Amino acid sequence: MRRPWRAKLSRRQLLTGAGATAASLPALHALVPHQGLLDALAAGSGRDGHHPGAHTGPSHQGTVGRVRPGANGFDPSKLLRDFDRGRTRRMASGRTLREWEIVAQDKEIEVAPGVKYAAWTYNGRVPGPTLRAREGERLRVHFVNASDHRHTMHFHGIHTAANDGVPGVGRGDIGPGESFTYEFDAEPFGLHHYHCHTSPLAEHISKGLYGAFIIDPKQGRPDADELVLVQNGFDTNFDRENEVYAVNTVAFAYLHDPIRVKRGELVRIYLLNILEFDPLNSFHIHANFFHRFPTGTRLEPTELTDLVSQAQGQRDILELRFPHTGRYMFHAHVSEFAELGWMGFFEVVD
Amino acid sequence: MESASATAERRRMRRRPAWLVGAVPLLVLAAAIAAFLALGAPGLDRIGVPQEKLAVERAVLRPGEIELRVRNDGADPVRIRQVVVNDAFAAFDQSAKRIGRLGGGTVTVQYPWIEGQDYDVSLVTETGVTIDHQIESATETPAADLGFYGLMALIGLYVGVIPVAIGMLWLPWIRRVDARWLQFLLALTVGLLGFLGIDALIEGVDFASGGAQALGGPLLVFLGAVIAYLALAGVGSHLDARGKRLSKARGGAAPAFQLAFLVALGIGLHNLGEGLAIGSAYAIGSLALGATLVVGFALHNTTEGLAIVAPVADHHTRHAAIARLVGLGFLAGAPAIVGAWIGASAFNASLAAFLFGLGAGAIAQVVVQIAPSIRDRDGRLLHPLAVGGLLSGFVVMYATGLLVSV
Q1: Mean per-residue pLDDT, A311-334
Q2: Which of A66, A321, B299, B341 matches a 20 to 30 Å C-alpha distance to A219?
Q3: Does B321 lie in the same domain as B234?
Q4: What are A's interface residues with B at a Cβ cutoff of 8 A?
Q5: What pLDDT is recorded for position A115?
Q6: Is pTM beyond 0.90 here?
Q7: With an 8 Å Cβ cutoff, is B92 touching chain A?
Q8: For chain A, how are helix, strand and coil distributed in percent, rounded to 5?
Q9: Residue B29: domain span
Q10: Residue ranges making up the domain that contains A36
Q11: In the predicted model, what is the mean pLDDT of residues A76-101?
């Protein structure tokens, strides 16, 4: 009664808080099948926020409010399946030459509802574009630095020292307004990544200068619904610890807007961990198991599991099919990361 | 010789009311500020990013809910966008989306906190700055109902009123000791008061660091001290002037009851702060309400009763005087009750700092008033007996203070 705004705000929270259902992960496990409640909440049915257990406070999960899709100029739900194959032409030798233009830009992005972060980006997005090539192609990356700071592009792959994108070797740092073309062969096939290698390294990576780099094997992989999940985080208060965790930048993006996949269809996940400041990250999926292809450099999986841990820079290709429809959670099995943004849902439909 | 016109000019000037002439600079200043702000502070561009600062003034815990009362402690407005409790985003409501400079706000976090556990509450602002507040050993904040006020009154009675009253029972004894020992007792009183004054300053500065620095921080303690000192000096000299008309002042010192009144007032202000500390500690559950605390305070504050009656040692007892003594006892002890009420229901670190400052200033003034009574026949202040008394006062306070740490 002394705080008349409370009734109003708890309704707003219902309208925007979407997946607010459970106070803890174990409780959530039990609740997952009951998607009726989730739907009611997501639809903002205006139901009273005091669920059973109100004795210990209403259940809630995630941030208050949500980041508008596209608020940053990129939508995490679209970024998932956005593969940048560049421009190609056939060289005299008969090989394919594949080219991209990548621009480094400084840009403020919203990493959690209402929380802004002064990011450094490749092509205005975090993570940068998912560059995709085929094994054996010749690749040219025209890098333009439109940022106020020196940067590089350092690719994981096999290439000459001059194209390694580290300070003091070849062109080294590319200054503001300068540009440089990195050129190398697409090898080996697998899931790799690229990131800035300018010093101080932790800062240049954690501010957003990274992206996935996929080299498909010559013979290709089986058709699948392919998704890119880049595990990242943001140190918003510069204490060299992350305040916000996510996959593909926006905290709880897929909790608010679940990833829709078809039942029975092969789903291939390109999973990459670029998280700075924390030594280990992990990916866990509920009610399912996946085949794991470490670094994607072999065509045979090494294990069938429901959890994969990744150190910084580590990556895996995961393949799975969902046998049942419904809403299935996936998240870092580091509870702290999960509850600070690295948590989402798959929505399996027929 | 002045010309006629100059004289006329001066006369004309004199007709303008003085207040109007005095207001001219103020009006010009107001106009200049208005123009400066209207033009958007020309020539002065803000460099750097906004400095967002919040002080958490009070945390109230209710089942399933943590309420933080915050005050903007910096130069820029603060917008709280998310709340993190123990490394997890939490649901919350807030009284205002934007808290302006020196403005206050309430953030109510829905969180299933568990009794006895520690919590880190982190307010995340629009720019990603985090304002952290630690809740140690969470416990429900007592509701401010009748029973609660009754309990605080009881605590105040135990630690304030009763010990002081007991201490005042030394009056018949000090009437019988000889003049030299009375001097010793007065020096002891000054020692006790000096200890309390230093203690009040330290406690005040301690509290000030927890409050909004923009409101003054430790400055509040010293402001409080100066205000109390000057106010009591004013009251003292007023009473002096009245007293001199009625009876002759003795030995340069203030009349006996007047001095006792000032001592009681100073101790009362100190006990107000002490009550505040006890009440606020009780509210956050960090007060071990037990026999040790009460016994400790009883011993500690009983000496305060001695300090009140020492100045009236050679005054003849009449019925009216007994009533006055009871009044003095309440003046010194009862503020502990009021302090406990404030501390437990509306605690604010800046207010606490200011109140402790008042206590320290009042005590300093009282010390100045008593000091002449300690002088020996040669007019020396720090004669061996006086020094002995002062040191004894410190030792007694230090030793009994060991029994009470809130």
Answers
A1: 97
A2: A321
A3: yes
A4: 3, 5-6, 9-10, 13, 17, 20, 23, 53-58, 60, 62-65, 111-117, 234, 236-237, 239, 243, 251-252, 335-336, 339-341
A5: 95
A6: no
A7: yes
A8: 15, 40, 45
A9: 4-38
A10: 17-56
A11: 96
